[in-house]
C-alpha cells in the first residue's frame, strides 16, 4: 500500500503536537523513543524527529502509542 502525502510533502498532522507536548513535558526525543520501545514500538529517535517535522507517515497504532507515552488524549495529538 502506498503511503500518501496530504500536500507540500507533509506526511502527518499530529507531529507538531507531539513535539509541542514533548517539549512542554521536558522529554527528549531519546526519552520518548525509549518509552515507545518499552511498549513494543519499533521506532528510532530519527523516526521521531521525522514525525515531528512532518516528514514521516504515522500509523494509527503509533498515534495510540504516543498518546500513552506522553500521557495525553489521542485528541490532544490532533489539536
Write a concise synopsis of the structure shown.
This protein is mainly α and 79 residues long. It has five helices and no strands. The chain has a single domain, classed as lambda repressor-like DNA-binding domains (434 Repressor (Amino-terminal Domain), Orthogonal Bundle).
Protein model, in words:
- The chain is an all-alpha fold and 79 residues long.
- Helices cover 56% and strands 0% of the residues.
- The longest helix has 11 residues, at 60-70.
- The mean pLDDT is 92.
- It is built from five helices and no strands.
Keywords:
434 Repressor (Amino-terminal Domain), globular, 79 residues
The CATH topology is 434 Repressor (Amino-terminal Domain)
Work out the helix count.
5
User: Oligomeric status of the shown chains?
Assistant: single chain
Give the CATH architecture: Orthogonal Bundle
As a percent range, the share of strand residues is: under 5%
Along the chain, the helix and strand elements come as: HHHHH
Low-confidence stretches: none
- State the major sheet: none
Total strands: the figure is 0
Please tell me the total number of domains: 1
What is the distance, rounded to the nearest whole angstrom, between the alpha carbons of the first and last residues? 27 Å
Radius of gyration: 12 Å
CATH superfamily: lambda repressor-like DNA-binding domains
Mean pLDDT over all positions: 92
